[in-house]
Structure formats: C-alpha cells, structure tokens
Amino acid sequence: MNDGLIDALGHNAWAMRELLRVCRELTPAQLQATAPGTYGSISETFRHIVSSEARYYARLAGEPLPSEGTVECPNLDEFAARVDDLAGTWDRYLAQPFDADRTLVVPWNDGHDYDVPAGVILVQAIHHGNEHRAHGLHRAVVDRRDAAGVGSVGPRRGDASREAAGRVAIPVI
45 pLDDT exceeds 90? Predict the structure, then answer.
C-alpha cells in the first residue's frame, strides 16, 4: 500500500550507507573540512541529516521531537547504526496506511504555528537528505581525489585568496 514511500525512504538509507562507506576512506581532518555553500563539515552534515530525519519521523508519528544535539559528532559507525535504526522505524511506520492529507500543526521558528499536510513532511524527509548528501558526496569524492593526487577542475587547495578567508576551495568535478 505504501510501497513507493517505503522504496523512497529505503533509497535514503541506502544512499546514506553508501556515503558512509565512501567516507570511511577519509581522514578525520577531511571529515571535518567545510566548503562554501554547504551545510558544514561532512560529519556535521551527517549529524544534521540523521537528526532531521528523526525529527520528521517524530513529527509524523506524534512523538516528542529529538534535538539535533550540540555534543561531539558521532563516529561513522554510530551514524551507520542510526541510519539502520531509522530505516527500520520508517518500515514499521509505513506498514500502516499513510494519510498524506492529514494536517499537522507545526510550530515554526518565527513564533507562528502552521498547518502542514503530513505528505509535505514526508516528502521533505526524503528530499532533505538527498540535497545534503549531494553536497557531502561531492566533498568526499573531491577530498579522495585530492588525497590521491588526481587533478580536478577549479581552484586548488592552497589558493591564497581562499585560505585568507579561512576556507579551502572544493573544486567542481
């Protein structure tokens, strides 16, 4: 009945596992690297994706919202375990009929409450991870290429103007 939704969220879990697999080859410094125009470091992005997905689920299930947390980022094994937990949670949740038109009242950070269809929250749970993974995967691939000495297009590490701004350029591949 919810096969398409189960498949989409299953894809999210698969994509996270693949990105975690690729990132196991990175150094701790590479996992903490940031790039202009992205959420933050690879580790911070993992934490943001996983904690946001948990909050989307909690909102849909009517459970208390977990916080994103400000403590040290979990390691890759802890992220992988959380991804597996979330995949199972979504499978159990979607084993029941899903009412995409059900209205949820969502308090927003502007101080107002908004009526949001459950389907919009579920779509955001799927889209949000895709958007951030695209940034994280790009950084991971570029860092691996740079570590291997493979050339890339665009400004290179060591570009004085970017270093002066406190940022390392991540080229487009």
Answer: no
